[in-house]
Write a structure and sequence with these properties.
Strand order of the largest sheet of chain C: 8-7-6-11
CATH superfamily of chain C: Cytochrome-c3 Hydrogenase, chain B
Helix content of chain C: 40-55%
Strand content of chain B: 5-15%
Structural class of chain C: alpha+beta
Number of strands of chain C: 14
Number of domains of chain B: 2
Distance between the termini of chain B: 25 Å
CATH architecture of the largest domain in chain B: 3-Layer(aba) Sandwich
CATH topology of chain C: Cytochrome-c3 Hydrogenase, chain B
Strand order of the largest sheet of chain B: 1-2-3
CATH architecture of chain C: Orthogonal Bundle
Largest interface: B-C, 58 and 65 residues
Number of helices of chain B: 10
CATH class of the largest domain in chain B: Alpha Beta
Number of domains of chain C: 1
Radius of gyration of chain C: 22 Å
CATH class of chain C: Mainly Alpha
Largest sheet of chain C: 4 strands, mixed
Chains: A alpha/beta (847), B alpha/beta (242), C alpha+beta (431)
Oligomer: heterotrimer
CATH superfamily of the largest domain in chain B: NADH:ubiquinone oxidoreductase-like, 20kDa subunit
Structural class of chain B: alpha/beta
Chain lengths: 847, 242, 431
């Protein structure tokens, strides 16, 4: 029979979908799910389905053919729904046929507790179909045995009671790959955190108590696996292109790199020309070339590549979408000159009668209103700045004079959109300009390093000659004051820059005296500076100031006066002022100095160049190269699948309060047109948002709140006091506990450990619930404060627990502690647990 | 139970109260009846928290005699204002017996209360919103998702209440508002009047207390508020087993 | 020695749960006491609370006189900060107090006192609210309308039916629209007719009857505020021959209380009973002589005026009176202004006292605070607390009288009637 007639009936399609979701279904269950009363009807449909399904021991399941057909059906559904990019895969099941494997680990377990008794007890648990002991589960010989056992018992969920999931989770998950979804495998750590931790050759604790703990650990795992529902996973097709914001050296180098790899690049520049700051500089240190020549070379190469689309004079309007597929809305501001028509004949500039200060020469000279930013700029066409346009509209001489009709004073802003798979920030940094303390005044010969670059440059304001700006007299003494700006960081290139200046000055005037000053009082890590570089001209003083004299100025370093014809203030770069605004559209985080944080690199937006902090030419190029590699490897995927250890949003419950946005360390959550959106690729599944969500709208796909609360309940059945509950973060706390087990460092068995992704996942609810359930002590074990796997998860946990503790009476306050450990501090872990246990024992005895 | 009678007072004020009396047969209502024996009932609305031994027995008796029990008001649902008491904080009913539904609020908001009663009369389940106050908050426009403002005040300055033309979210004014952790359903009465939310409706998920802890740990709170129990235990106190 | 036998009977149809406790010595009634359940401890709760947080907390003392509690607390706080609310806010506060009084009085009169009156004067034995409602359907609908009126006033001016939002220290947040004020005005006019009907109904049924002499008040002192507006004034203590008044600031020589312990001790009048509430208000302010109300009083049998049952009539009179007051207040020009409320500013004094007349009588709050604006001591003087000694005294006499002829089981049911006539508020009393 042909496929289409098989699939034509909705019941038959439904049976296939049911079997896909549940794996195995009994005849009666299918009846039930379909809401059928007559067996005849179902028999008919089952018969029609023919080779797509098969039956074994009263249960029906999909054959290989059936699975293939289902894939096609799912695809069809997607296409019909017009759902082109996203694809939701449903995993999990509502049916519970649970199998328990107890791995004896070469008799490591049975040496301490009676494993047979344990399995007998476990057999009585509800929903548990079969309990098996394996000697060494992790060995590959067991593969066939295990899969057969699963198939024979129609198991769909499994609890593995064995060593720590940190050691063999992945190999065991691989083992079950073909028979069980790995969200349906739960682990009970009965080796490191039970048998090994409560018994060594010196002290042997009561094996019955240890066995009971093992039983509770497994029971909790069973409860957890029962609570595991179906989850949804997101898949995104990758758009093979990249947007680079910022057309300076970093942006252009990266664009070229990506273009070489065949990636479509949008090079987007805010100002009317490519080149960035360096284009205005005299030359780049340690390179013979003058910088504008170097830049024009680079621009020339870029313009040639057809993979690169250049957009200048652009503002970003809005960015939506997620890693792999962004939609960016851009606004092109008018330049009032058609770049395509203009030939660069300069006629318009000649006739222009309006002058204004030339911001490209730091306001030291004047320029025409219609102007070129600098020679060799790209695109090579003049422009009029927006706020001057009113004047131009009164005059319109240039419009008439232009032969190609390139000038259009009525030009409007244009909106356009691009789709890209990745976005890179290369907008560079700003220069520190709060220079009152140093008497900054170009007309009095106190200038900044950037202005000095222009002075050295042959197309600059003095034509490359060293003359005083006040009276055009030659300069015979120059003082350069280094590192002016915020004291928290130093510019790694300032030494190089000073050396370059010495070189440049000596070429122009060999007799000129040059002194380079460092003010140590204004630098936080001044020891590093002292060690860094020594050149006879470098003077390190504890106090550097400027005195303005009559005709000649002085630099005073530690009370010694240095008369100077010219004082150059070598100012630092500071974070780009646009950064704060762009953060909202581009989402990245800041580092402590206010630059873009390098941590952000992992979460979908990349940064290159001095947006990340002060960088010299070489570092800039190498950062561009590194990022290029990352982007190339990202865009080489056809699609991306989000990790399903992440979170799920129930919009029915979401009240849009935004607490999740605040708590997410990765900026993975955003508010987009009155909806909370989670970027599954940025999300690392730490669960901080889940613990801060007040309505339960956010929930972990795997480690749900319900599961953890249920685990607390099961553990609270332990009768021995004091009972201690530990919430341990997966990467550090839990690993430290394992470490204690591996080292056989003994602590009491009435200590139970619950694994959480991150300490930030520890909800106050968990702690309050544990107290309600009768735990005497609660311990949260997370990473060390500056090395949290999830940036600030541990910080959030700390402030939460501090708040909680502060509001309890002292006797309850004692019962809650937070510990910061790294993964190998097993000794510290067991010591702390023992100490805590001792303290609580005294308390318990008191009452 | 232990109460201020505010819920009863609200009940009498409801538009549908006369209708409610008509459609039901009030069997036991100490406020207006002389009846002192517990019979058997279809529905019990219980107001007030548990502070004394005899109340537990009475409650259990009612539970045995009743088909459906609903906790009425914050005292019965959460423990209520007596949670602030050091001597004996009131316990919610659910600490002692199983509860079939809640009508929260101090006092229960009239529309919510009225709708709940209508549902009960029609033998339907009570349906409460799962969302929080922010969802319908009139000041949501001005919410700053960074939550950077330092929170220093419990209530706004008097001057700001009556005069503000375009009021901003309380949190960005430095005033503590528990709206984010509080269930929606009172038409944001307090916020509309210029006062921040106190959380009397409780949370829609997890306990109110833990939500307050989670929430406040994300904020920049002034030191005097950090340990001010008037925030944390205003309507409920976490039960702790010794 | 004869053993004491203790009889405890829950008292129904009052606000809250209270028990009547009778101690029998042999067959003699030794002691009758209205037993109040455990105190909730608001005086302790208030300690260490921020002073501007207090009104929101004390409002929760009582769901019937919530507005009085909140406003008196605001007054005490304003005393501490040395500010006075704008006149608009005072008008609004009085309106809110009126709304609360209307509701409280009507609910007590109809559901709690009226069935007793019907029984005492042998009209009908009412055993459940449905019989009560059918007794006079017009009366019933008037009562529901009046309850609604009181509620709506508080909802429109205060934000909700109980535990008002807009009562803050420094004034009243004011946002109602002109439409809602007009609505209230209409409701008040209707309410005035209902009040008339209630009074007429009372006169028709009971004016010619003579209340049982056991309900007669002994020679007692009346405690109340000197002003009729129930908001300002001096504290007045008055009896059949003397009358003296003093400012609330000087209350301590006259009476005081221990924090957290039930009961107020009156230093000068220990042997004489004290009463506060509608009866005391009438004795002090004599609204009965006003032109509009005097005719009603003339129709009442003089005997009534010594009885505690007269309180029920006075509740209705106050209803009518306050509805008219409210109509007047609504016409005040200052209600149309949009005003700014004063900020609390700096603490001026380390303690503050607030006072007003709640529906059940004199209400006073006294707070002491520290430099951090946290309360270190709070004393709450509450009307029911003042009335209880007299109530116990009278019920004991009544019980002894009754017990001469009747079995103790009947006695304990009957004395509940007297307790209800006092309109005790358990919520308030268990503050």
């Amino acid at each position: 029979m042909d496929l289409y007639s098989i699939l034509s009936h909705p019941f038959r399609r439904k049976i296939l979908f049911l079997l896909e979701r549940e794996g195995y279904l009994l005849y009666s269950e299918i009846m039930d799910r379909l809401g059928l009363d007559l067996t005849g009807q179902l028999n008919f449909h089952l018969k029609k389905l023919g080779s797509l399904i098969s039956k074994e021991r009263k249960s029906y399941f999909l054959t290989e053919d059936g699975k293939r057909i289902l894939n096609i059906l799912n695809l069809n559904e997607r296409i019909l729904a017009g759902d082109e990019i996203e694809h939701l895969i449903s995993k999990g099941s509502n049916l519970n046929r649970i199998g328990i494997i107890v791995c004896n680990c070469n008799e490591e377990i049975s040496n301490i507790i009676n494993v047979n008794n344990l399995t007998n007890e476990l057999n009585n648990l509800e929903n548990v179909v079969s309990v098996r002991i394996f000697e060494n589960l992790c060995q590959e010989i067991n593969l066939e045995k295990v899969t057969n056992w699963v198939k024979e018992n129609f198991l769909n969920k499994i609890v593995v009671a064995a060593c720590s999931p940190k050691s063999h989770k992945h190999s065991i998950e691989n083992m079950f790959e073909d028979v069980i979804e790995y969200i349906n495998i739960e682990f009970a750590n009965i080796r490191e955190q039970c048998c090994w931790a409560h018994s060594n050759h010196e002290s042997q604790l009561n094996p019955l108590i240890i066995a009971h703990k093992a039983y509770l650990l497994i029971e909790a795992a069973v409860e957890r696996v029962i609570l595991q529902g179906a989850i949804k996973i997101k898949r995104i097709e990758v758009e093979k292109s990249c947007a680079i914001f910022g057309g300076g050296i970093a942006g252009m180098t990266l664009a070229l790199n990506l273009a070489h790899a065949g990636i479509k690049v949008y090079l987007i520049e805010k100002s009317p020309t490519l080149g960035g700051k360096v284009a205005r500089w005299h030359r780049i240190s340690n390179m013979g070339d003058c910088s504008i020549c170097f830049i024009s070379d680079l621009i020339g190469e870029i313009v040639k590549r057809e993979e690169i689309e250049i957009h200048t004079n652009i503002e970003i309007n809005k960015i939506s979408g997620e890693l792999g597929n962004f939609n960016i809305e851009l606004i092109k501001k008018p330049r009032f000159v058609d770049e395509k028509r203009c030939t660069g004949c300069l006629q318009c500039i000649e006739v222009c009668g309006n002058e204004t200060y030339n911001e490209y020469e730091f306001g030291l000279t004047k320029r025409k209103i219609i102007h070129f930013p600098f020679s060799n700029c790209y695109p090579y066409a003049p422009l009029i700045v927006d706020h001057d346009i009113a004047k131009c509209k009164e005059c319109r001489i240039c419009e008439r004079v232009c032969l190609n009709k390139a000038i259009n004073l009525e030009q409007k802003t244009e909106n356009f959109q691009i789709r890209v798979g990745a976005k890179v920030m290369a907008i560079g940094a700003d220069l520190f300009f709060n220079l009152h303390d140093y008497g900054y005044d170009p007309t009095k010969n106190i200038i900044t390093s950037a202005e000095f670059e222009r002075m050295l440059s042959s197309d600059g304001l003095t034509g490359g000659k060293l003359v005083r700006l006040s009276d055009n007299q030659p300069i015979n003494s120059i003082s350069i004051i280094q590192e002016i700006g915020p004291s928290d960081y130093v510019c790694e290139y300032s030494d190089d820059l000073a050396l370059k200046y010495i070189e440049d000055i000596t070429i122009r005037n060999p007799k000129c005296e040059v002194n380079i000053f460092y003010d140590l009082s204004k630098l936080r890590d001044n020891q590093d500076i002292l060690l860094r570089y020594t050149h006879p001209k470098f003077l390190y003083a504890n106090n550097v100031s400027v005195k303005i004299g009559n005709g000649v100025n002085y630099v005073i370093a530690d009370y010694i006066e240095f008369p100077s014809d010219l004082i150059v203030l070598n100012h630092k770069v500071v974070p780009n002022k646009d950064l704060v605004n762009l953060r909202k559209t581009l989402d990245f985080t800041f580092d402590e100095d206010g630059f873009m944080s390098k941590e952000t690199l992992a979460s979908g937006v990349y940064g290159v160049g001095s947006i990340l902090g002060p960088m010299n030419y070489r570092s800039t190029i190498s950062s561009a190269n590194t990022i290029a590699l990352k982007i190339i490897s990202l865009l080489s995927n056809d699609y991306l699948i989000a990790d399903f250890t992440g979170i799920n949003l129930n919009e029915e419950k979401c009240g849009l309060c935004g607490l999740c946005i605040k708590s997410c360390p990765f900026n993975a959550i955003t508010l987009d047109s009155e909806k909370i959106k989670i970027d599954g690729f940025k999300c690392k599944g730490c669960g901080s948002c889940v613990s801060s969500c007040p309505t339960g709208a956010l929930e972990m796909n795997i480690d749900s709140t319900e599961k953890i609360l249920r685990t607390i309940e099961v553990f609270s059945k332990s009768k021995i006091r004091p009972k201690i509950l530990i919430f341990a973060c997966e990467s550090c706390g839990y690993a430290a506990a394992d470490d204690a087990g591996l080292k056989k460092l003994v602590y009491p068995p009435n200590v139970f450990i619950i694994k959480v992704a991150c300490a930030g996942r520890v909800d106050s609810e968990f702690i309050l619930y544990s107290l309600k359930c009768g735990f005497d002590g609660i311990m949260v074990v997370g990473c060390r404060e500056n090395s949290c796997n999830y940036i600030d998860g541990i910080t959030q946990a700390k402030s939460r627990i501090d708040l909680l503790r502060e509001n309890f009476e002292p006797e309850i306050r004692k019962r809650i502690i937070l510990l910061n450990l790294n993964s190998i501090e097993g000794k510290k872990f067991s010591d702390s647990v023992n100490r805590f246990h001792k303290l609580l024992s005294i308390e318990v005895r008191k009452h | 139970m232990t109460t201020c009678s505010g819920c009863i007072s609200t009940l009498f004020s409801l538009d549908i109260f006369p209708q409610f009396l008509e459609k039901t047969k009030i069997a036991y209502f100490p406020y207006i009846t002389d009846e002192d024996k517990i019979g058997s009932y279809d529905i019990a609305l219980i107001e007030g928290c548990i502070t004394q031994e005899f109340q537990i027995q009475l409650l259990q008796k009612v539970r045995r005699a009743t088909n459906k029990i609903y906790s009425l008001g914050s005292c019965a649902v959460l423990g209520g204002i007596t949670s602030l008491s050091k001597k004996r904080a009131g316990d919610p009913l659910s600490n002692y017996v199983e509860i079939d539904g809640i009508i929260p609020g101090c006092p229960p908001p009239s529309t919510l209360f009225g709708n709940c009663l209508m549902n009960l009369l029609e033998n339907k389940m009570i349906k409460l919103s799962d969302k929080n106050q922010c969802y319908s908050c009139p000041l949501r426009e001005g919410l700053d998702y960074e939550f950077k403002t330092k929170i220093t005040k419990l209530i706004p300055n008097n001057r700001d209440i009556n005069s503000a033309q375009n009021p901003k979210c309380f949190l960005s004014q430095g005033v503590l508002c528990l709206g984010p952790v509080t269930r929606e359903g009172c038409d944001n009465k307090c916020i509309n009047r210029g006062m921040p939310c106190e959380g009397c409706l409780g949370s829609s998920s997890k306990s109110l207390c833990s939500n307050i802890y989670n929430f406040l740990s994300l904020l920049d709170l002034s030191d005097d508020l950090k340990t001010y129990e008037g925030i944390f235990y205003r309507y409920s106190k976490p039960p702790i087993k010794r | 020695m004869t053993k004491l036998q203790k009889i405890v009977e829950p008292c129904k149809r009052i606000d809250g749960n209270g028990n009547i406790k009778i101690l029998l010595k042999g067959d003699m009634i030794d002691h009758v006491e209205f037993e109040i359940p455990q105190i909730r401890g608001f005086e302790n709760i208030l300690v260490n609370k921020k002073v501007h947080d207090i009104p929101r907390i004390v409002s929760r003392i009582c769901g019937l006189c919530h507005a009085s509690q909140a406003i008196v607390s605001n007054k005490a706080i304003e005393d501490i900060y040395g500010i006075s609310p704008p006149s608009q806010s005072i008008i609004l506060r009085r309106i809110l107090l009126i709304g609360e009084l209307i509701k409280s009085h009507v609910m007590h009169y109809f559901f709690q006192a009226f069935p007793d009156l019907l029984k005492i004067f042998n009209f009908q034995e009412i055993s459940n609210p449905y019989e009560l409602m059918q007794f006079d359907p017009q009366l019933t609908s008037s009562v529901f309308d009046l309850i609604k009126l009181g509620s709506e006033i508080d909802k429109i001016f205060g934000g909700r039916y109980v535990h008002l939002i807009s009562c803050i220290s420094g004034g009243v947040i004011y946002k109602p629209s002109q439409i809602s004020i007009n609505l209230i005005r209409k409701l008040l006019q209707k309410g005035s007719n209902h009040a008339k009907y209630l009074i007429g109904n009372f006169i028709k049924l009971f004016s010619t009857k003579t209340p049982p002499s056991s309900f007669d008040l002994p020679k007692i002192n009346y405690l109340g505020l000197s002003n009729q507006d129930r908001y300002n004034g001096k504290i007045v203590i008055k009896n059949y021959k003397n009358k003296f008044n003093f400012s609330e600031k000087d209350y301590q020589p006259y009476f005081d209380k221990d924090v957290g312990v039930f009961g107020i001790s009156f230093h000068r009048n220990n042997n004489m009973g004290l009463i506060t509430g509608p009866i005391a208000r009438e004795k002090i302010n004599e609204i009965s002589v006003t032109e509009r109300l005097a005719p009603y009083f003339n129709k009442i049998n003089e005997k009534w005026k010594q009885s505690i049952l007269f309180q029920n009539f006075l509740e209705l009179i106050e209803l009518d009176h306050e509805i008219h007051q409210c109509l007047k207040l609504l016409n005040e020009d200052s209600l149309n202004e949009r005003i700014e409320l004063p900020d609390l500013g700096e603490i001026q004094k380390s303690e503050g006292i607030g006072i007003l007349e709640a529906p059940r009588g004199l209400l006073m709050h006294h707070y002491k605070i520290n430099q951090n604006e946290l309360v270190i001591q709070a004393k709450l003087f509450i009307a029911t607390e003042i009335n209880i000694p007299l109530m116990n005294f009278m019920t004991l006499q009544y019980a002894r009288d009754l017990h001469k002829n009747e079995a103790i089981d009947k006695v304990k049911k009957k004395i509940a009637q007297m307790i209800r006539a006092f309109d005790p508020c358990i919520s308030c009393a268990t503050h």
